[in-house]
Structure formats: C-alpha cells, structure tokens
Amino acid sequence: MHERSHVSLAELTTIGLGGPAKRLIDIDDETELEQVLGELANESDEVFILGGGSNVIVSDGGWPGTVIRPAFRRFDATKEGCEVLLHLGAGEVWDDVVRECVQRRWAGVSCLSGIPGWVGASPIQNIGAYGTELSQVLVEVHAFDRDAKRHVIFPAADCALGYRSSRFRGNARHVIEKVVLRLRADGGDIIRYPELARSLGVREGASVNPAEVREAVLELRRGKGMVVDPRDTESRSAGSYFVNPIIDAQALQRLEARALELGIVTEAGLVPRYPNPDGRFKVPAAWLIEKAGFHKGMTVGGVGISKKHALALVNRGGATSDLLRLEASIFHRVMDRFGVRLQREPIFVGEEMEDTPKSCAGP
C-alpha cells in the first residue's frame, strides 16, 4: 500500500485535466482494500475508485476526499480443452493483457486491442470495439461490496452488461478486484465489423489470426488518435467522448426527415445507422457532431475536437471547464438540429458545472 497527499489527478488521466485529490492510496491486494475501505467509512471520507484514468474527466476542483487505485496484479490461465480460463487482477493494464493473449494465440480479445486503462474498468462500461464487447468473453467479476462489507462474485449474466453500461457504472457500491475471461485456446477471431473487414481484406464473418487482427485494429485506432501515445497530441483525450445514441424507428424517421430538410443527405437511407438486436438503431455520434457544424481539428479555448476523429475531445492546454463548455455546445447543437440526445461516455469526478446538460452527463 502506498499513500500520498494532495496528488494531481490530471497526471493520472489520459486527457490530463483536473485538480488534485486530498489523498491517493494505491492498494496491492484484497485484504488491504477491505481494511482501507473500513477505515475510510469510519472517517466518513468521500471515496472515488480510479483505475488507469482513460475514461475519466476530473473537475478543476479535483476530489475533496480519497482516491483509491486497486492496483491488483494477476495473470493466471488455466486451459480447459480448447478454451482458456483467464483470471486477471483489476490493476493489470488492459492492452498488455490483450498483447499477451495474442502472443499465446488465444482468440477472443484481439478486436479490443489498443483500449487504454486497467482491467478493473473493463466490465464497468462493457468495453467494446470493432464488433466485439467484453460481454462476449466475460465469465465473472469479483468485487468488494462496500455496503455488505464482504467480497462477492457476479456471474456475467448478473452484471447487466449493455452498450457501454453495466450494474457497476454510476454505482460506487462495488469495487472490482478481479475479472475472469473465457478465451479460445487456438484459432481465429471472427470479423464482424465492416471497417475492420475492409482493412484486413476479408469478408465479414471471416476467421482471422488474432495477431493480424490486433495489428489492423491498432492501425485503425492510431489513425483516429485512439491509441494513447505521448508523441501524439491528438491522443490526449478520454477516448470516445460521446456514446453512439441508440434510437427507435420513429426517432430515426425524424432524423432522416431533418437531414433531408437541411440538405445533409439526398436520400433518407444515407443517414448512417446500424441495426440493434432489439429493433432500434445505433447512429454514429461522430456523424451527428460533424453534421451539426463541428469539424475535426477545431479548437475552443484550451480544448478542441481531434484532427483525426470527431468523437474525441482533446486537451490543448486548457481546463476541465473549457471541456465542459465545448461538451455543452455540442450537446445543444445536436439536440436542436436533429432532436437526438448525446450522452457523455467518460465518468465525471467532482462537481459538475451548473449548466452541464443533465442528459449529456448520463449516470
């Protein structure tokens, strides 16, 4: 266990914004976690659980209490026939795990290459990319229940995993300690995403060596500034800032009509959408943002929109307040122009600005 006082949280996040925490505690195992949480509960101290800081926005005022980082390290694999059961500590770096799995020729996670952050955060938002989500390989989540003061295990079916959501998101009750995945011991990964299929030169549904998939995914992500790289200023972000909205058929018809009225498309079918299993449609937030008049590379104050991808808001030497003003501007213009509500994907830490759109802030 390692404890520090008045630590800059900006230095612990990929976007590099935000004020300090009164106290930061790095914890190495489950016993320490239970002990520290018990002590903090007696002190009535405000607690925030932080992982790799890749999907987090910290207010300029920082966090008035204690930030805990469960830095548990574990990488244990058990082969069961043609499958591998993989036990991972919450503090393992997610992309390091993916790289190791690919090197061992295990299939199931190569499409999730390049996603920053720690393993413990992966089930919180059910990380996903290029046609794959964590839910497809998750077996169970081990956590500490702060209310019941005991360690608990959630089978994947009990984690309420959805599109960038789970029972853990927006709920501080459970601190994730370990994640268990089930991978295939050999074979290829199925390509389900059109852009990735084109990059690989295969048809959708094809099975491709995980190493090839990883390289293609990393190349696509680099092209969008979605691989954290200190040399790439366009990667100084929190990743995708807005969740792709999922709308019903009526809302899609209204969006199509509005896009036709504004001359954005010449045919209703040209509004991009991806069918959801429940009959609704996922609309790319980046398309809505650009068609609302925001362009890649624009700067407002000390923040802006990435030169590589309209869905990434980047830090160009500004403050969290600058970011929230840009967020609000995007939210209101998309809502006014298309009648579609955007929702912030990163978790916000600290006090929101008074004029932050509530629908945008999400859970």
* Beta strand count: 24
Biggest β-sheet strands, sense, barrel: 5 strands, antiparallel
Strand order of the largest sheet: 6-7-12-10-11
Identify the quaternary structure here: single chain
Shape field:
globular
- Domain count: 3
Radius of gyration: 21 Å
Query: What CATH first level of the largest domain would be assigned?
Result: Alpha Beta
Spatial separation of the terminal alpha carbons? 31 Å
State the helicity in percent bands: 10-25%
- Average pLDDT, rounded to a whole number, is 94
Number of helices: 8
Characterise the protein shown here.
This protein is α+β, with helices and mostly antiparallel strands and 363 residues long. It folds into three domains: 2-70, Uridine Diphospho-n-acetylenolpyruvylglucosamine Reductase, domain 2, CATH 3.30.43.10; 75-223, Uridine Diphospho-n-acetylenolpyruvylglucosamine Reductase, domain 3 (2-Layer Sandwich), CATH 3.30.465.10; 233-361, UDP-N-acetylenolpyruvoylglucosamine reductase, C-terminal domain (Uridine Diphospho-n-acetylenolpyruvylglucosamine Reductase, domain 1, Alpha-Beta Complex). It has helices spanning 30-43, 94-103, 194-200, 210-223, 249-261, 285-291, 320-338, 358-361; strands at 2-8, 20-27, 47-49, 56-58, 63-70, 75-80, 83-89, 128-129, 132-133, 138-145, 150-155, 174-184, 189-190, 207-208, 237-240, 242-243, 246-247, 274-275, 281-282, 299-300, 303-305, 312-315, 343-344, 347-349. Strands 6-7-12-10-11 form a five-stranded antiparallel sheet. It is globular.
